[in-house]
Amino acid sequence: MKRQAFQPQDIGENKAIALAKKINTFHGELCEAIDKYVTRNELIEFIDQRKEFYPILIGCVDNDATRILLEQTFRHLKNAVYIDSANSEYDGNVYAALNVNQVTYGAIRSETYTLENKDHPAEKSCQELAAGNIQYLVTNLKMATSLLEHCSCIMANELKEGVTVVKQFEEIHF
Known about the structure:
The chain is α+β, with helices and mostly antiparallel strands. It has helices spanning 15-27, 40-48, 64-76, 126-131, 137-155; strands spanning 56-59, 80-87, 92-100, 103-106, 162-167, 170-173. It has one domain: 3-Layer(aba) Sandwich (Rossmann fold), CATH 3.40.50. α2 packs across α3. Residues 2-144 form the THIF-type NAD/FAD binding fold domain.
């Protein structure tokens, strides 16, 4: 509850489901979350069953295996938005891309970084990193704010495509 937008009634509920409910409370039925690990095919099937919506994938994950799954799904979709956030101790970045008729605009993380596809990622979660003082609360808050700006743009029918770099005392978008 200290690190994310949760309240006491959310304890015990899947955090993706709890946050989707909060978003929908304020903005209508815009957000759906899946409360289990999925394959690329399951994710594509989930998206295909919702033809009335424009797919927006937001990656706030702690491992490259899931990033690869999200990127593969994004590349498969004819039209979609993909926003991927990652951070370390003091800095981070947000990659934002748009597929329009399978032409990609913006930036995708794997075009800059080598992503490791591990079946069972051993990386620590954000909460575990913060508990060990390896990752600071301010860094996560700045990253969350940057993602919120991206989501706000989408809700205003705009996309801030490209890369946003978040450092300890600055933020740069290019």
